[in-house]
Amino acid sequence: MLTEYAPILIFxxxxxxxxxxxxxxxxxxxxxxxxxxxxxxxxxGFEPFEDARMRxxxxxxxxxxxxxxxxxxxAFLFPWxxxxxxxxxxxxxxxxxxxxxxxxxxxxxxKKGALEWD
Length: 118
Fold this sequence. Notes:
Elements: H1 2-29, H2 36-39, H3 58-82, H4 84-112
Helix pairs in contact: 3-4
């Protein structure tokens, strides 16, 4: 029974060895020129603060969540566009309803000022 898994184990071993060799080569042969700018911490689009526990403005997270929501629209549009000839009119109307709801939500967020970065 172990012989059935031998090709998988060999594949995993070879992949691990190749990965480690390539990482080691990159680490050993790559340029290493650190300076203050490269070594300074930089997170979340803000310059580093004195206290790491400082609160961030909630609008930053709101804009990030809104971006994710409206970016996922594209993830739904690609499969729909590929299979449009198979799903027919029902698929067209379903996607139209989806896009209308999405646009209404976008207009609502715009009017509420959620996209303002002041």
